[in-house]
Amino acid sequence: MTKHAKIPPQHQDSMPAAEHEMTPAPDWRPRYPGSGRLEGKVALVTGGDSGIGRAVVALFAREGADIGIVYLDEDRDAEDTRRIVEEEGGKCHLVKADVGDHDAAFGAVNEIAEHFGRIDVLVNNAAQQFVDFDLRDISEEQLRRTFDSNVMGYFFVTQAALDHMPDGAAIVNTASVNAFKGNDKLVDYTATRGAVSAFSRSIATQLLDRKIRVNAVAPGPIWTPFIPGSMSDEMVEDFGSHAPMGRPGQPWEVATSYLFLACEDGSYFTGQTLHPNGGMIVGS
């Protein structure tokens, strides 16, 4: 079991929040030497600047991939992640864009594809969440913002990427344990993650003829900028304690699922979901 530093109360008034302001810092570092499982590949990761996205980017770079990152507005986190990729010996291209906007999403994907020449692995990961204790408190503006980021963005980015992906490529979408068990404080976010699960299974079937594998990862409570960006001090301090393992997970513990599904190790997986969630037993 990974060591877990106690999380002190903290809150940031932004969504997405900043990783460099979190205490303790999320643990994104890969644990093992690379073995070339993504050697020569190009991976596009939305929301790759921080949190789970940063851990995925770091691990993919260690395994030999060059990385395109699409991020919203966290410039410092994005530059920090670019340095991580370069220290692993990879190339990194950053694009600042709101994937919930059709033209911005297509523009970002096309820029990365033109920069590297193709996209071999797509990770749809960018998302936002907001805590509300009463369904009636969810404003139309918030509802549309959450669905634009978490659902429309996945559609737009995937639509754009398919023109640049060779047969046999891989798509990995970020879902959530909440899509399987529900969450009464994150109703709109949970609904979007359910949509991602259905989206993943549907396009997995649609893309079988191109041998493009489509899978999802449904993390449990993971210590990422989502948490101080959406929760109160008290909720942050208690975060992850309800998981059977008694602690939140760290981003590096989730990134390995993405690598498995992105590389040939997962060659017989499509339309499936992996559940790094600290021991919560949920339907698949």
From TrEMBL:
The keyword Ion transport does not apply. Residues 1-33 are annotated as: Disordered. One of its GO terms (molecular function) is oxidoreductase activity, acting on CH-OH group of donors. Keywords: Oxidoreductase. Transmembrane segments: none annotated. PANTHER family: NADPH-DEPENDENT ALDEHYDE REDUCTASE 1, CHLOROPLASTIC (PTHR48107:SF16), NADPH-DEPENDENT ALDEHYDE REDUCTASE-LIKE PROTEIN, CHLOROPLASTIC-RELATED (PTHR48107). Belongs to the short-chain dehydrogenases/reductases (SDR) family. This is SDR family oxidoreductase. The lineage of its organism: Bacteria, Pseudomonadati, Pseudomonadota, Alphaproteobacteria, Rhodobacterales.
